[in-house]
Amino acid sequence: MHNRYPNEGMSLIVKTITRFTVWLIFLFGLYIFLHGHLTPGGGFAGGVIIALSYVHLTLAYGRNYVNDVLKKSTMHSLEALASLLAVLVGIIGLYAMGHFLQNFMGVGQLHHLLSAGYIPVMNMLICVKVGMGLYLVFYYLASYHLEEGK
Amino acid sequence: MPVDVWLYFILSIMIIGSIACLEIKNILSSIITIGIVGLGLSIAFLFLGAPDLALVQFVFEILCMIILIRAFSKRSLKITALKRDIPETVIAIVILVSIFVLSIFAFKDLPSFGQPIVRVAEKYLTQAGVETGAQNIVTSVILNYRIYDTLGELTVLFTAILGALTVLRKIGRKKRNA
After folding, report:
1. pLDDT (tens digit per residue) in B49-63
2. Residue B83 forms contact with A (CB below 8 Å)
C-alpha cells in the first residue's frame, strides 16, 4: 500500500523489516483463533496477537498510515458489530434450541477443523472484538500523551 | 527437578521484580521490571500444564508493556519519595505478620495440590469431547459450558473501551479548555 506519510514513524531499516514481519504476526493470530477449538489458544489470544500486529505497524509507520490501512471508525464499527453478533448467536440458540446461547449447529466430527458447532463462530467474533478493542485502547492512550505534550 | 521447586524459584523472582519495580526511581526501568511479574506468571502457567493461559498471559503482557511504555515513558513524571513514619511501618508489619500467621491455619484445610474437590471437572474431562465436539477441553469449557461467563467478559471489555474513549476523547477536553 502506498505510504502517504513517509516521514513519520521509525527509520527505513525498521520499516523494511516490519514489512516482512507484520504479515507473519497477523497470520499467526489468524491461525491461533481458527484452531482455537483444536489446539491451545482461542479467540482472546488470537485477538491480542492481531492487535499486536497493528501495534507493530503503528510503531514502525506512524498512526496515520494505519488509519489509511484500516480506518479508526471502521474499527469501532467492527468491534461493536462483533459484540452485537455474539448476542445474536445467543438469541438464535434461544429460538432454535430453547436456551440462550445453546449450540444450534450440531457437534460435527471430533478433531476436524470444521467441528464443535458454534465454538469457532464465537471464537471469530471474540477475536475481532478483542483485536480491534485492544488496538483502540493502545491508540487512545498513546495519542493522549502526544496531544498533552505540546 | 519437581515442578514445585521451579514454581518457588519463579515466584521468588517475581517478588523480587515487583519490589524492584516499586523502588526504582526511573519510570522506564520501573515499567520494564513490571514485565518480570507477567512473564514469570506465564512461565509458571507453562510448568503447571496450562498452555492456553500461558499464551494469553504472554501475549497480553507484551501489549501491556508497549502501552505503558508509549503512554508514560516520555511524560515528565515527578516521583515524590514517600516518607515512612515509624508507627505506620510498625502497624503495616504487624498486620502483614498476623495475616501470614492466620493464612497458615487457613491453608491447612485446603485440598492438596492437584486433587480438586470440585466434582464437575471430572465430567468435563470425560464428556467434553462427546458433548461439544471440541478437541481442546479448555475452549469447550469457556465457550460452551461457561459461555455466559465469556459473554460477561466481552461486555466488561466493551465497557472498558467505551470508558477509555469517553475519558480520552478530544471533544470533551476542548470544551472544558474553552
Report:
1. 888 888 889 988 998
2. no
